[in-house]
Amino acid sequence: MINIQQLYKTYRTGNIETKVLRGIDLHIADGEFIAIMGRSGAGKSTLLYQISLLDEPTSGTITIDNKETSTLSNQDRIDMRLTTMGYIFQDYALIPELTAVENVMLPLIMQGQTKQAAYEKSVESLSEVGLKDKVDNLPSQLSGGEQQRVSVSRAIAHHPKILFADEPTANLDAESAKTVLDLLSQLHKERGQTTVMITHEEEYAKYTERIVRLSEGIISEDERLKK
Ligand code: ADP
Predict the structure, then answer these.
(1) pLDDT per residue as tens digits for the range 58-92
(2) Ligand 1 centre from 57 Cα, in Å?
(3) Residues 96, 68: Cα–Cα separation, whole Å
């Protein structure tokens, strides 16, 4: 599903160069649930941004769903992000002025779905994460755990082939974190989408099938977990 070869990413700010990714080779099979770990600053988010097409690497190739992504036009990249991928961020990234259901509807409408179809899919998706009774709440009227479940619901409403989660539990207490991780595991089991999650908690990485560790911009360890 995702094939990364010799991926390099260097940030340039003024005269300062930061070499963050220094030759990453990684193959993620269709349907795999994988954790990316490493100390703060190791390049985990940078790697996720390249794979999820939110940024472009300095060099190297990323093939997703059999498409070499550097050959895609800007519009093709946007389309691939909208249709093939779902995103969950640590700060939820919900729009505060929109209700839960409106937040979930937004990417569906951007994909060209009608308001009615988007509404129905969004209510269904919110029901799947246990928030049927809170569809009309604003983010400020939801707990952190509930806001993250809205964000999970938004990420899965269009049934993406790949789900990306960047430290989805970083701002949650232990109980809400467990709820979100149980939800991700359950969705993975039921729908089988490829899931790539960044975490720095060993305990949370154990929810996945494989742990890839980043260090000094390369993969220092790649471990498959027995289930
Ligand atoms: P992690 O997610 O593992 O904590 P990041 O990928 O966020 O690490 O960051 C890796 C390194 O790249 C850090 O040193 C960070 O300061 C630097 N960095 C990240 N984004 C940028 C950027 N847009 N411009 C310059 N440097 C950046």
Answers:
(1) 999 999 999 999 999 999 999 999 999 999 999 99
(2) 13
(3) 36
CA of 200 to the centre of ligand 1 (A): 15
pTM, entire model:
0.95
Helix (H) or strand (E) holding 224: strand 218-224
Of 20, 214, 220, best ligand 1 pocket probe by most atoms within 8 Å of the beta carbon: 20
Q: What's the alpha-carbon Rg for the chain, to the nearest Å?
A: 17
User: Does the beta carbon of 172 sit less than 6 angstroms from any atom of ligand 1?
Assistant: no
CA distances from 222 to 34, 199, 226 (A): 10, 15, 13
- Determine if ligand 1 sits within 6 Å of the CB of residue 6: no
Write out pLDDT tens, residues 102-128. Answer: 999 999 999 999 999 999 999 999 999
Name residue 116's amino acid: Q
CA of 13 to the centre of ligand 1 (A): 12
Task: Please name the residue ranges forming H helices in the chain.
Answer: 44-51, 74-84, 100-110, 115-128, 144-156, 174-191, 202-205
Burial code (b: 16+ CB inside 10 Å, e: under 16) for 46-69 equals: bbbbbbbbeeebeebebbbeeeeb
For ligand 1, atom 26, the nearest C-alpha belongs to 11
